[in-house]
Amino acid sequence: MNYTHLKVLLVALLIVSCGVESVAPSENKAFSYIKSSDLGSLKKYVLDGGNPNLVDENGNSLLLLAIMNNDLRIFKFLLENGATFNFRNEQGNPRERLVVMEQAAISENEGFLQILLEIGADPNTLDSYLKYGVLFQAVVATKPSNVKLLVSYGADINAVGPNGKTPIHSAIAIKNFEIANYLLDNGADLTIKDKWGNSPVDTLKMFGDAGIKLNSDHYEWYLKFLHKLDIDPQTIAKTRHN
């Protein structure tokens, strides 16, 4: 048996051990039902004995695809009928592997995340590729509502990622000071340093107000953040405002 055959066999065994059946979209209409938001046909399929934990050729489960399609009705139905929310995609490009909680954390619709947290999903779930907590994903995706939901359900606000950064490091780096203010107000530790020796305040001083439009909501959040830290905006300004 060559390496390729062995790899395929191991993936197949892993999927079976998770209780998830791998079926290509062309072999089952359940995937097309989700794509077309056809809840009626999907209900008939599942209630007639169809597997609610099918995955497509990319390793995406029906539940994950429901979030991608922004279909909360189908998402709820699948969860109520045996879909596994802690399924991990182990197929395809590692950079494209998503867990259900990760996709929910970056969704525009906070309803997916709310439901998962209510039924016991771990707010500190790690993503499938870089192994950051999903709170990082919500921060980087600039989803304040999802950030607040995760924190309210116990997400570690000072979780340290593989490069030593915390969620507030990330919020400052992407210049989302609405989220940075929220994290600071809820216990973010400004003394934690990343692997390059930079604290969140060091990161703030490096970037300053670069890229933040004057008189915008973003700029107001930026000024509020500096005020809380007793930092004069002029001392770290990177942009000349005329």
From TrEMBL:
It comes from Pseudidiomarina indica. The keyword Repeat applies. ANK repeats lie at residues 58-90, 163-195. InterPro entries: Ankyrin_rpt (IPR002110), Ankyrin_rpt-contain_sf (IPR036770), Multifunctional_regulatory (IPR050745). PROSITE patterns: ANK_REP_REGION, ANK_REPEAT, PROKAR_LIPOPROTEIN. This is Ankyrin repeat. Pfam families: Ank_2, Ank_3. It comes from the Bacteria.
